[in-house]
Amino acid sequence: MSPNHNDPRHAWARLTAAARTVRDERDASAPFGFATRVAALAFAQERRVSSLLERFSLRAIGVAALLALCSVALNYQELAGTGTFVQHADDELLHTDDAMTIVLNLSAD
Fold it and tell me: Fewest Cβ atoms nearer than 10 Å: which of 49, 54, 73, 92?
């Protein structure tokens, strides 16, 4: 049979009752210089080792954007023209101002 823990004569009940009566008179403030040590430890942490892809991904996006802008700048006269005629599958010429059609037509030449 299991002992009744609610019985006031039980050892556990007496121990918890005695622990509730004790007052903690210790000083709860942090020691002198604690905040400085915590800040120093925070800044002294080693950086997490990142993969090569993580290190160069933003640079790669920047280089790709720069190359895209340069290609548009170099081909601006062709793209800003009054349009171009594109040969359709039924051998008829269609007038278009669509930039992607013009670029793809340039690559086919």
Answer: 49
Closest CA relative to residue 81, chosen from 65, 103, 61: 103
- Distance in angstroms (rounded) separating the CA atoms of residues 99 and 78: 9
Q: Is 86 exposed, middle or buried (0-12, 13-18, 19+ CB in 10 A)?
A: middle
Residue 1 above 50 pLDDT? Answer: no
pTM: 0.34
The per-residue DSSP string of 27-92 comes to --SPPTTHHHHHHHHHHHSPPPP--HHHHHHHHHHHHHHHHHHHHHHHTHHHHTSS-EEEE-TTS-
- Provide the token pair at 57: 């991904």
